[in-house]
Amino acid sequence: MALVTKADVRLHLLCIFFAIGSFVWGYNVGILSSVLVHPGFLKAMGHLTPSRKGVITAIYYLGTCYIFISHPVSDLFGRRYAAMAGILTVAVGNAFESGASGSGAYAMMIVGRIISGIGVGMLSTSVPLYQSEVAPAGKRGKYVVLNHVGFVAGLASGFWVGYGATFWNTTEYGIYVSWRVSLAVVQVPCVIFAVGLPFIPETPRWLIEHGHYNKAQRSLHWLREGSFTEAEVDSELTRIREDVEAHRASGEANWLSLFRDRNLFERLWRASLLQFMAQMCGATAMKYYLPTLFAKLGLPTRVTLLAGGIESTLKIGMTVIEMLLIDRLGRRVTLTAGCVAMGFGMLINGALGQVYPDNTNRAADVVCIVFIFIYALGYSMGFGPAAWVYGSEIFPTSVRARGLNFSASAGAIGSIVVAQVWPVGIDTIGSKIYFFFMAVNIVCIPIIILFYPETKGRPLEDMDLLFNKAIGGIGEEADEVDEHSEPVLPKNISRPSQS
Length: 499
Prior knowledge:
- With 499 residues, the chain is mainly α.
- The chain has helices at 6-35, 39-45, 50-58, 63-77, 79-98, 105-134, 140-165, 172-184, 187-196, 204-209, 213-224, 230-249, 257-260, 262-280, 283-296, 301-329, 331-355, 362-380, 383-393, 400-428, 433-451, 463-472.
- It has a single domain, classed as Growth Hormone, Chain: A.
């Protein structure tokens, strides 16, 4: 059994700490699911039609905020302070949401959701960016998946807090205040995250990008202590520096290079399409409308929230399993397996809804709930974590933040579409809406197999080589690399150190 080194402990603690930022993101999603069916919230918002409910959900995903706010902060001030700006912005938006009242309650909720969305845009990209840049190649998938573990833990916490809030709804005051308190609870992890960020090291790649070579050397030695020799760490640092300087000399520091440079554009459209597919597969609907969906199956509100809490808690376990598998099986295998599970879950829900309309068969309703769980587990072992892992590792340091932000914006567009389509679709065509999302999952499978080269075990500095191959031969497998070995490269290319 491999020894646990100082570097292993430090990396786990760092990535778990950064997962607090993802926890805040997940909590915002999970708690809104319960808030949308809370009697106090419905009373405060007035006449809440499916369309207006969709706006509250979708306005969170203003994709332009991801592009024009997130990456400049990450590039100028570092990954830590981008996360700091994000968490403070979320806290401000949450205050608007929690305080929404009176005739302007709906407007306050919309403003709060927009501000929170801007903050989450910074969090959702800076967290996996940091985790990807500090992790060694053979374990990078595992550490970046901790981003999704934090998200799912926040999602589950949101459901459980929402479930607990229903027991407060016994008085008029309880109905008025409980949904507000359940929203405001997220301020606690916001404070913990914001206070801790200045005390952790910046990523060596960002430090080298900004000329802080000595700080980068100290940071990388601290991150690798005990797992790699001094010579290996120095060699890795040199490789990172050479890679940064080469991309700077080529003009790739300009964001337009993502579109002008064919090699970079090959990565950009893949990362963007992956994030778009990750939302169009139905994930946004399941995250936000799960209690509403369970209510359609005839379950009372408290039971729907309990079921949502159980479902989200199971996701944590499945995401941990994904964390252990993604560096062994690879990104493509976990993505395609997840699509199969999600597509099958959607098929069963759509078919049973047609065979037994209006919940006329209780056994069929139970089967539908089971397959909603199977869908959720497929997402937690596929698109949920793997889309962020892939997008955070394929770009060079000079444009990594920009590339991840652009691709996240594609995910935001997908979320907006689904958040608008789902409530209206389920209200007008019922269970037939499941067949649409089933088709999306089926179409995703050949796209992933044909157009996404495997990245497991590849040092970040080797992605140029990988995508040069991809241009000539789409979908070629990367060479197998374990956590301490080097990739197999052509003879005329020097071997990089582990990154």
